[in-house]
């Protein structure tokens, strides 16, 4: 168990990186706390696997250091780091039994058979694999094989962190949920640092204490699921997290008023912006409201269609060529005549070039 | 109920029947025909029953040839399979050198059997052959036309030279299909090089290895041209394998009856061995599931 400190870490696959675009992983400087569950969330090619491979030691970063509990491990090969990893596709040793698979990492580390036996029994019990211990690993289902891969990481007492690289990709949907719950329970029981890479927001939000959202090589935000929902630091976070994602509309600013194609919107505070910034307004569909009667600062929209997805309804509206999604509680009436949209000013976020704008200190 | 009988569809089967008849059944039947008859010439044949079969199955000549055949196949398998695996594991994994390696290794496979025989026949000659002359200059008494050991050595090295690359190429294909994650997982588990070979590479190569063993066994079991060109089955009968012996009997001595019985027994042995291999392979496949 350990705290992981990524010190001024960056990585480029090119030999001589010059521009920021050359970096697959832009510089980060972060401490990941011991015993917490982290999810690395982002779309394909955003650098999350690069970051994972740097932590596991399969990749040496082009700059910066990785420290486990203050110990530098940047140059240490994978086998000398106390890391376990579960891959996208189940990796089991086909010819071995489940027992031998689980005992394999311990046997390689020359532990005595008696202690291996008790340890394997303990882990098998935890993963509900006890009944399969004598079976050949190759005959098992994909989810059992994934449990074995995980088990090989868990048997080692000294593991600092367990890394998961989209481990549920090949698992049947109905088992995914079950396995995710087991993982979560295991984490609470073992208190080991777990890092879980995924592009599925549900997976990330249900599994992790802290979600690390990555976009284009940047770590754009680290936060609890609630923080990501309420205060997205980047338009990508707003858009990627939530279903449907945050509405993002181009605006201009004047004091504490925002202008949306000429329509003024009162904001709760003033923001500091630079001339030339690309300004955008973000609002989650949950904090918008449709009404048949116009009010101050309401936007006139055209409703294109209304989808009833059970828990609530989603209205897809058009505002001067921009699509806006609106979430309407199931018990509220709505029709195409509800043309006036109000945005809750407390939940309006402003972004410059994608990044959240700082608020002016309230005077 | 009125059922129309129409057997015209049988004509559709005719091409296949003819093809199989002319390619396999009729030639095989002529052999069967010879194997149960005897002749004193003049194209007059009379019934001999199973006499030739009894004679062949009990003959020392056949037993010796069969023994040499198994020994030969066994030795070349013991050399070519491990050597092929070793070469495959040391071949480059990426870059331009792969193509160079593949082309170089395929070369022996592209040379006709007869030419391979001739190459080694000359290569090993004591007077002008690079191998033979050089060995003798170095004081090694090497002569494949006189010494039984030298003859076997030459024939085996020739087969290894000709066919090891086939095993290596098959194994290489097997190795290339192992996902990178297996090696990464093995590193994380702290596996040694030997453990990686024993528990990842070897099991993943099992399918192609079985095919390699089957191909090499069958091919070497039927070998004729190369040893015939190099040693002609000699010295004495030391390298007279089944095919060579069969040709000697059928064409050299013109003993058509015994030769026909010989070839049928030979054929049945190969059929039996193929069946054994097939059964083993399908059983292993079943275990996989």
From TrEMBL, chain A:
Key word Transferase present: no
CDD domains: ABC_Carb_Solutes_like
Domain ABC transporter: 4-241
GO CC field: ATP-binding cassette (ABC) transporter complex, substrate-binding subunit-containing
GO molecular function: ABC-type ferric iron transporter activity; ATP binding; ATP hydrolysis activity
Pfam families for this protein: ABC_tran (PF00005), OB_MalK (PF17912)
Keywords: ATP-binding, Cell membrane, Membrane, Nucleotide-binding, Transport
Keyword NAD on entry: no
Stored InterPro entries: AAA+_ATPase, ABC_transporter-like_ATP-bd, ABC_transpr_FbpC, ABC_transpr_MalK/UgpC-like, Mo/tungstate-bd_C_term_dom, NA-bd_OB-fold, OB_MalK-like, P-loop_NTPase
Entry protein name: Carbohydrate ABC transporter ATP-binding protein, CUT1 family
SUPFAM superfamilies associated with the record: MOP-like, P-loop containing nucleoside triphosphate hydrolases
Gene3D superfamilies linked to this entry: 2.40.50.100, Nucleic acid-binding proteins (2.40.50.140), P-loop containing nucleotide triphosphate hydrolases (3.40.50.300)
Domain of life: Bacteria
Organism: Thiothrix eikelboomii
TrEMBL record, chain B:
ABC transmembrane type-1 domain location: 66-277
GO process annotations (BP): transmembrane transport
Subcellular location as annotated: Cell membrane
Keywords: Membrane, Transmembrane, Transmembrane helix, Transport
Predominant localisation class: membrane
Membrane topology note: Multi-pass membrane protein
InterPro entries tied to this protein: MetI-like, MetI-like_sf, Sugar_ABC_transporter
TM spans (from-to): 12-36, 70-88, 100-123, 151-175, 207-225, 259-280
Keyword Transmembrane tagged: yes
Gene Ontology cellular component list: plasma membrane
Family of this protein: Belongs to the binding-protein-dependent transport system permease family.
PANTHER family found in the cross-reference section: GLUCOSE IMPORT SYSTEM PERMEASE PROTEIN GLCT, TREHALOSE TRANSPORT SYSTEM PERMEASE PROTEIN SUGA
Protein name: Carbohydrate ABC transporter membrane protein 1, CUT1 family
Protein source organism: Thiothrix eikelboomii
């Amino acid at each position: 168990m350990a705290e992981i400190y990524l010190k001024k870490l960056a990585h480029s696959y090119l030999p001589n990186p010059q521009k920021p675009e050359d970096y697959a992983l832009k510089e980060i400087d972060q401490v990941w706390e011991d015993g917490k569950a982290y999810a690395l969330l982002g779309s394909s090619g955003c650098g999350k696997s690069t970051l994972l491979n740097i932590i596991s030691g399969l990749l040496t970063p082009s700059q910066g250091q990785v420290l486990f509990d203050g110990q530098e491990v940047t140059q240490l090969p994978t086998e000398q780091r106390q890391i376990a990893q579960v891959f996208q596709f189940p990796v089991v040793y086909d010819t071995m039994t489940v027992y031998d698979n689980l005992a394999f990492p311990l046997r390689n580390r020359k532990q005595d058979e008696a202690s291996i036996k008790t340890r394997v029994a303990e882990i098998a019990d935890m993963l509900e694999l006890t009944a399969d211990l004598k079976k050949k690993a190759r005959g098992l289902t994909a989810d059992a094989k994934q449990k074995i891969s995980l088990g090989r990481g868990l048997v080692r007492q000294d593991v600092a962190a367990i890394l998961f690289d989209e481990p549920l990709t090949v698992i049947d949907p109905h088992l995914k949920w079950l396995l995710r719950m087991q993982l979560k329970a295991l984490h609470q029981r073992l208190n080991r640092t777990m890092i879980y890479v995924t592009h599925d927001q549900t997976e990330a939000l249900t599994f992790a204490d802290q979600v690390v959202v990555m976009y284009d090589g940047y770590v754009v935000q680290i936060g609890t699921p609630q923080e990501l929902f309420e205060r997205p630091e980047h338009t990508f976070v707003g858009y990627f997290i939530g279903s449907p994602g945050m509405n993002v509309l181009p605006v201009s600013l004047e004091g504490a008023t925002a202008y949306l194609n000429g329509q003024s919107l009162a904001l709760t505070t003033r923001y500091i912006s630079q001339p030339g910034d690309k300004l955008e307004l973000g609002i989650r569909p949950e904090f918008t409201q449709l009404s048949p009667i116009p009010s101050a600062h309401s936007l006139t929209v055209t409703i294109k269609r209304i989808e009833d997805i059970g828990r609530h309804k989603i209205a897809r509206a058009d505002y001067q060529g921009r699509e806006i999604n609106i979430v309407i509680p199931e018990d509220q009436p709505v029709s195409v005549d509800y043309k006036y949209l109000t945005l809750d000013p407390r939940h309006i976020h402003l972004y410059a070039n994608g990044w959240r704008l700082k608020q002016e200190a309230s005077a | 109920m009125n059922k129309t009988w129409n057997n015209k569809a049988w004509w559709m089967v005719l091409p296949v029947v003819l093809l199989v008849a002319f390619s396999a059944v009729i030639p095989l039947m002529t052999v069967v025909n010879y194997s149960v008859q005897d002749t004193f010439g003049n194209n007059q044949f009379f019934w001999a029953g199973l006499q030739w079969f009894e004679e062949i199955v009990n003959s020392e000549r056949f037993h010796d040839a069969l023994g040499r055949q198994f020994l030969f196949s066994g030795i070349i398998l013991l050399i070519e399979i491990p050597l092929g695996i070793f070469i495959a594991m040391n071949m480059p994994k990426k870059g331009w050198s792969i193509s160079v390696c593949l082309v170089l290794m395929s070369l022996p496979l592209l040379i006709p059997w007869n030419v391979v025989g001739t190459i080694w026949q000359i290569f090993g000659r004591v007077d002008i052959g690079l191998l033979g002359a050089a060995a003798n200059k170095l004081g090694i008494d090497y002569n494949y036309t006189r010494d039984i050991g030298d003859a076997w050595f030459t024939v085996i090295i020739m087969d290894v030279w000709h066919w090891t690359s086939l095993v290596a190429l098959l194994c290489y294909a097997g190795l290339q299909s192992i996902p990178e994650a297996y090696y990464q997982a093995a590193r994380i588990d702290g596996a040694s090089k030997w453990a990686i070979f024993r528990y990842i590479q070897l099991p993943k190569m099992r399918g192609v290895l079985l095919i390699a063993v089957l191909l090499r066994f069958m091919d070497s079991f039927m070998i004729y041209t190369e040893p015939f060109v190099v040693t002609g089955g000699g010295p004495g009968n030391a390298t007279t394998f089944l095919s060579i012996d069969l040709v000697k009997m059928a064409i050299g001595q013109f003993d058509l009856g015994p030769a026909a019985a010989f070839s049928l027994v030979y054929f049945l042995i190969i059929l039996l061995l193929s069946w054994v291999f097939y059964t083993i392979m399908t059983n292993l496949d079943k275990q996989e599931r």
